[in-house]
Amino acid sequence: MFSSAHIEAVRMALSSILAHKLRSFLTLIGIIIGVASVVVVGAGISGLNRYVVERVSKVLGANHFMIARMASSGRTSDEEWERRNRRNKRLELRDYDYIKERCGECRDVGAQADTGIDLRYAGQELLRTRIAGVTASMAAIEDKTIAQGRFILPHEVDHPALVCVIGMDVRERFFPATDPLGKTLPIKGLPMRIVGVEAARGSMFGQSFDNIVYIPLTTWGRIFGRRQSIQIHGLAPSRELLPAAIEEARTQMRGRHRLRYRDDDDFGLVNVDEVNRDVDQFTGGIAMVVTPITLISLVVGGIVVMNIMLVSVNERTFEIGLRKAVGARRREILVQFLVESALLCAFGGLLGLLLSAGLAELIGATTPIPMRVTAGYVVLALLVSGSVGLVAGIYPAWRASRLDPVIAITKS
Questions:
Q1: Dist. CA 281–CA 272, nearest whole Å
Q2: Which residues, listed in sequence order, are joined to residue 214 by a DSSP beta bridge?
Q3: Is 60 helix (H, G, I), strand (E, B) or coil?
Q4: If the chain, 412 residues long, is cut into consecutive pieces of 10 residues, what is the mean pLDDT of each piece?
Q5: Is the distance from CB of 160 to CB of 222 less than 8 angstroms?
Q6: What is the residue-wise DSSP string for 259-322?
Q7: Coil, strand, or helix at residue 389?
Q8: Is 66 helix (H, G, I), strand (E, B) or coil?
Q9: What are the boundaries of each domain within the chain?
């Protein structure tokens, strides 16, 4: 519990701070900037993490994994990547059929192949459009939402049909004022009848997910060649069964490629959980580098506070001497200046928190990265700034408590 001496120390500390408002504010600039930097960087890193995870989950879908010729995490070195590039085999439709027939733990299995071209239609052009050859099951595996029409049907894959489903960017560029369903979009000189429009999926770091055209995988092979490797996509019945589905698909693929027990996989495998772990590791690495740098400003601010508190002790030697002469103990003088230093920095932390909230709102409004200053950051800002104040005030408070009352009164 707080005693009357503690309450008096707080009252005197507030009185001293308010008596020198401009000096107190200038002293706190370092603390304000330091706290704002730490909070904004923390909110930015967590916001970046949420943004990437949400985008990845939206693009890949839940409970989803992929087998490809080259699919690896960001931890792979350049040398390892080159080694795998030489070793790994091209995946074919026969591999897809094999996994689809034998993966009992998979709820569904699909296949996809991609390439990029520049689309031209009715005098308009759309650069670097992704042409995705897909099986009908990819709609469910990647949890696609069709805004108009329908997705590719199984018989259109079995018997290569000249049909396509377009993304929202393609619709807005080539068919802004008309219904695109039933229209013909030329791809590599072939007339592809539009049967559906995918709902907008947004973008990530400026890369749009809506600049895309889906066509049957077999049609894609006839247009772009069957020698290119495909991707095999699997969907587990639930999040809990995802590891079992991945392991069964991996085992079946190893058997398909006649790999021995000690042989490394000659294919890549990736899933949403692995991507999310890589994202966490990446943002964690950023935090480890950036956070100590932002803390430097707090250290500088603490040094400034210590300097001002030393000046305050020198200015108030008469007050200190008088208090000790009428019975104040060293502990009471020590507490008075520690409380004053801690309160000074806590005010700085509060102002820094308000500044960071404004910056977070500005960044969130001008970028796609969500920025939120949570209650945890409020507590962190006040605790850190108050702690800096306590540490910075220890030496000045100790000096004040050690002053001899007679010398202090005489000197002043």
A1: 14
A2: 132, 165
A3: helix
A4: 61 72 78 82 79 67 82 62 76 93 92 94 92 94 92 95 96 94 94 96 79 96 88 90 91 90 85 69 72 73 77 70 69 76 81 86 80 74 74 73 62 53
A5: yes
A6: --TTSPPSSEEEEHHHHHHHHHHHHHHHHHHHHHHHHHHHHHHHHHHHHHHHHHHHHTHHHHHH
A7: helix
A8: strand
A9: 4-55+278-411, 89-266
Q: Write the Ramachandran bin of 151: left for phi over 0, alpha for psi from -120 to 50, otherwise beta.
A: beta
Question: Computed from CA positions of residues 322, 323, 329, 332, in that sequence, does the dihedral angle turn out positive or negative?
Answer: negative
Structure tokens at 12: 């005197």
Name the nearest CA neighbour of 333 among 315, 319, 348, 345.
319
At 1 the pLDDT is 46
The DSSP code sequence of 167-179 is -HHHHHHH-SSS-
**How many whole angstroms separate alpha carbon 81 and alpha carbon 31?**
46
Q: Find out whether 401 and 331 touch, Cβ atoms under 8 Å.
A: yes
The CA distance from 116 to 14, in Å, is: 66
- In this prediction, residue 403 carries a pLDDT of 65
What global pTM score does this model have? Answer: 0.66
Buried b (16+ CB within 10 A) or exposed e, 155-171: ebbeebbbbbbbbbbbb
As given in the structure block, the two tokens for residue 30 are 């370092």
* pLDDT score for 111: 95
